[in-house]
Amino acid sequence: MTTASSAPPSINPAALFQSPVQAIWNVQGENVPTLWWPAKEQSSAAGDKEAHHTVLFMIPASHLGHSAGSHVADPSRLYSLEEQVESKIAILDRLRETYPPNTRFILAGHSMGAWLALRVLKARPNHGIARIFQLFPTIHRIADTPNGRKMKNLFGPVSRSILGGTVSTLRFVFSAPPILQSIVGFVTRQDADMAGVTSQKLLHSSVVKNCLFLAGQEMEAINIMDKELVEEHASKLVFYYGKTDEWSPIENYYEMRDQFPKCKSYLCDQGMVHAFVLGHGEAMGLLVGSWINEL
């Protein structure tokens, strides 16, 4: 399988999948928000006696400690990177128990979620993982990226305490949800729905502290690429890089293209940024839909 710099024609994923399923699952004693998409129809390859079920699992949508709500038992707890890995593996195990044995699972990982997806694949190589979409992936040398060098000092305990306290103060001063939502929308340029999610679910002291704590661990752990794993499962991996991404620089695209020609490696030509959900969510959805349609 050769690499490419341009993507196939876009397909609306709504034509392929049912509405997303969102649930709070108790996984290894923790209540975890989980998000996945079951396919609309079963597909059957030529010569197969049984139809295939397909499920798309969004890795970043289920980070421990990264959302606030009644499901959080201990808001003060900080979750390690390895706990996040074990949680994702356990969620895949739970999904595998939920669907028939021949189900194909598609994992989608954004940023460090791409690294998590590889860890899940390594732990469960025979669990029906058919594809992994690595979107703006940070799977190695994250501390040596432009953003890693600029921001690494924000992830220590003092910075976590200061930023967490600042968020608590903002929530107290602007306690009315519509006001806080408007401020978040103005600062981040998110639309009303996204700003509402950010202000009510994410902009909490506990969430900010967990995000920063996890980022600090990423700086240490996400360093050396597991090249043997990538080579072994190259046919399952799709990498998508940005031209101006300071978390996963364009050099990473050329490295993957040249070292792993059996993977599919794409370089964005649509002007998407690392945080593509801020303005390019629909475009990315269409792109991922096209990749799924190729299965």
UniProtKB/TrEMBL annotation:
It comes from the Eukaryota. The lineage of its organism: Eukaryota, Fungi, Fungi incertae sedis, Mucoromycota, Mortierellomycotina. It is found in: Lipid droplet. Belongs to the AB hydrolase superfamily. LDAH family. Its main location: other. It comes from Mortierella alpina. GO terms for cellular component: lipid droplet. The keyword rRNA-binding does not apply. This is Lipid droplet-associated hydrolase. GO terms for biological process: lipid storage. Keywords: Hydrolase, Lipid droplet. One of its GO terms (molecular function) is lipase activity.
